[in-house]
Each structure stands twice: as structure tokens, then as C-alpha cells.
Amino acid sequence: MSIIGLKSNVFLAPMAGITDYPFRKVIAQRGLVNLYSEMAAINAISRKNPKTYRIIDVRNEPYPVIVQLVGGNPDLFSEAAKLAADLGAYSLDINMGCPVKKIVANNSGSALMKDLPLASKIIEATVKATPLKVSVKFRKGWDNSSINAVEFAKMCEESGASYVTIHGRTRAQGYSGEADWDIIRQVKKAVKIPVIGNGDVTSPELAKKMLEQTNADGVMIGRGCLGNPWLLGQVHNYLHNGVLPALVPIKELKEALLQQLADMVDFYGKEMAVAISRKYVCWYSKNLRDAKKFREIYTKIYDYSDAIKAIEDYFSKQEESSIL
Ligand SMILES: Cc1cc2nc3c(=O)[nH]c(=O)nc-3n(C[C@H](O)[C@H](O)[C@H](O)COP(=O)(O)O)c2cc1C
Hints:
By secondary structure, this protein is of the alpha/beta class. The protein has two domains: 232 residues, Alpha-Beta Barrel (TIM Barrel); 76 residues, Non-ribosomal Peptide Synthetase Peptidyl Carrier Protein, Chain A (Orthogonal Bundle), CATH 1.10.1200.80. The protein contains 14 helices and ten strands. The strands form two sheets. It has an eight-stranded parallel sheet. A two-stranded antiparallel sheet has the order 9-10. Helix 7 links the parallel strand 5 and strand 6. The chain is globular. The site of flavin mononucleotide has 23 residues, from strand 2.
């Protein structure tokens, strides 16, 4: 089944501070997958915050981008949806799973799992605002004593959502413990719209296992892609052609990191790009020799040309071998 006309059933998870244009591009060039924006706060959109505008402006990207909105006010959702549609969104996703205090305190993110009438109004307002399809991403429930993903998914379906994504953890769990895939299976059984399963998938084999266990229509992967922009494409290939991935040569790892850095310069400017690149350097070097030493050196770099030189030097010194 094609999910809202998309060509794959493998999704990059929306991640604030990570799934920006440079990250989407590096992934899109390495496989067929569906891409999300970072979450964009509807309150900031209505205040015309330039940083938030930049998150939802995906007009220059040649592949579909699902733009994720977060907030707690149906009218502002309607406004933000219209703007996101004008700025090139392929479809809209509503964040009803974010556990962060600041978001929850604002009746937003996973707080909406405790207020189904408001969540429903938000979905209806967003669906009505534009011709774009609208999906919802949520969790297992607020905490262990209020697990309501099945009821919540039914509400999403009745309110007009085109598909739902469920992360198998409660709000109280944050990102700790294991994701519960059985709740994904229960949600899938309860609704007719497509269900995407999310949580703890880090390899093509685990993606297949999760789909088999849950009967979900698609799989979403977040943290597994950090330092591994090939993973999602590999998962797609494995699920659809049964092909297990070949190892990725270190040279290609270096090229991916350098490309991402160059795109970050175009997007954020040199100074910010170098600062943001520190976390990527950690992720890209995580399985390599002398990574700790390299990270220590890299954290002290502020200049763009020094950053490139450090990356070139470090990766060239690694044996010509393969990882991942
Ligand atoms: C750094 C970080 C930022 C995240 N930001 C968002 C976000 O903006 N919107 C959202 O719906 N989920 C967000 N998430 C949750 C992920 O989309 C995903 O549900 C979660 O990481 C579980 O999937 P995984 O085990 O494959 O990482 C974030 C997760 C991380 C680690």
C-alpha cells in the first residue's frame, strides 16, 4: 500500500536540531526514503520567527518533505498549515509525542495525549486548512498508568488523519527503556489508515522484524541514522529487494561528512556550520580508531578551513577499510 503517494514506506524520524536541509540532503542522495523536517512551533510561525520559517521552507528541495508542526491552538495550526503549504510541504505532520517540558507545558506535544478533544480539534483544523494530507505522530501514552495509544489512534482516524506514527514509549519514559512494539501491533489492528512503527530500529534486519511483529505499514528511524546516512536506503532495499547492505568504505563516510558540512555552510554560514558539525563529527567517527582524540581536537576548532583539514587528516589516516 502506498502511504499518501510516497514511494517508500521507510521514514526518517523528525528530530529537532538534526533533520534540517543539509541532513535531509545527505540522506536523500543515498537512498529512497521519506523525509521529515524538524518540528516547527506554530506560535513561533505566527510571530514570524525567521528561524522557524527556515525550518518549514522546503521549496528548494527536489524530493517530498513532510513538515512537522507542534503547538496547542487549532487556529494557529490552521494558519501555520497554510503557510507550510505555500512554502513547499509535501504533507503535514502534527507532533503529539514530544516529551520536552517546555513543549508539554504549552498544551502541546505529548500533553495532547491527555486531551483528546483538543487533539481532535487541532487535527480537524489542520486538515481543513489546506488540501495537503495530515498525519499525527504520538507515543504509547502519557505514562504507564494512562496507556491510550489505541484510543488515540482511533481519534486521529476519525478526525481526518491520513496515517499515524507511533513511538512505542510513554512520555514518562522519554527516550529510555525499550520501545514497546506490541502497542504498534495493537494500534495497527484498531485502525484502517496506515500505521508507521517507530522506536529502536537500527538495522535492516530489525526493521523487517518490527514490521513482521506489528504488521505496520511502514517503519520510521531516528537515532540509528546519526553518522549513518545510508541506513534508511539500506532498510528500503532490504525490505523491498531482500538485499543486505555492503559495508560502506571509510572514504565515503568522509565524503558524506564533508558534503554535509559544505551544505551547512550554505544554510547557516561558516561559524554556525562548524559549531553544529561537532556532533556530526562524533557520530561519523564513532566506530573508528582514535575517535576520542579526534573529537577532542575537533571541539577546539572554530575556523571552517581548519575543520575541513582536520576531517581530511583524520579520515585519511584510517586504514582503507569499511565500516557500518
Ligand atoms: C535529538 C532528538 C530530537 C527529536 N525531535 C523530534 C521532533 O522534533 N519531533 C518528533 O516528533 N520527534 C522527535 N524526536 C523523536 C524521534 O522522532 C523518534 O520518535 C525517537 O527518536 C524514537 O525513534 P528511534 O529509536 O529510531 O530514535 C526526537 C528524537 C531525538 C533523539
